[in-house]
Specification:
The protein is α+β, with helices and mostly antiparallel strands. The longest helix is centred in the middle third of the chain and has 13 residues. It is globular. The protein starts with 6 loop residues before the first strand and ends in a 6-residue tail after the last helix.
Amino acid sequence: MIPPGCNIALIRSSNLRPSYSHVDEIRGKHKLRFLNLLMEGGEWLIAENVGRGIGQNELSRIEEEFRSKGAGDVFIRNGILYSRLHSANNDLMSKINGIPGCRIGPLHIWNMDDVYFTIEYFPEQAGKVSDILLDYLSCDHSLSVSLEYMGNYSGRIPFMLNLFQSLGGNLGDYCIVTTGWNATSNELASETSGIFLNPGLFYPKAMSDSDTNEMIYYGKGNNFDGPASEIVDRDQRIYQITLKTRFFNDFYESMKESGIWPLIFNAVSDGRTVTNNMMIRNNEVEGFTLALRQHFGKRARNIHVNSLVSIVRAAEHFTGSKEIP
């Protein structure tokens, strides 16, 4: 889900990745799939779950295929194939991420010859986003890119999931795992600078291994109390928060070790309980819940009351019909 009033710019590249690679053979030739955008050590990465280990000969072949399209280093960890971004996209994403209230959507879609990704921004940033996009689209960077859509989106199903379905993807293959932090008022006030005392929606600007993270907050109350580093829109109660916490670093390490990256992550607070919503593939539920157990058991986490709240089909989560799969 994205906050109400958020705008979307959809970019398509027709030569960012090879139309066919050895990854297709490993994955059973599934041409339509999601890719994760991550930030590790301050650098952008694309991650794809290939489901098994890859031998050195296979990795060398994949690396050659990807580099022919401008991707950077390719490496494998715990069944996840990682690649560094083409320099033009790396530059674009860093510039967008530097605008308060803006972020690159955490999902990419790879479909045959095309790769899609989004920019999420609010109307107040439209001018800055437009300038960066025009430079990117007109630059001689060897990528074949186009702006497919730019404007408001208020659908209940997130934009990229809606696009995935329109391209023939099946959301029935995915589910939403929700966890809860049942905190005391003292915990909420003392942890994470007290930001979760504010009811509303929280979105990390990037899934990162850093212990200092930026989040976009869309409020449901009248005021915001806490360390808002930037006011994006006071009337709409939209803020960007710079937050020093071990949570994201611990979460990143837990997911890296497990070889499962949630495709969507957001947090919701009602001022008393904080819930995290994460989208994964149905066949990853067992491994993901084990990873959550390890995450909750880490030193900075096990002092809190964390719990698994629900696992529901992705489509039903967003349409409001939440039956257990």
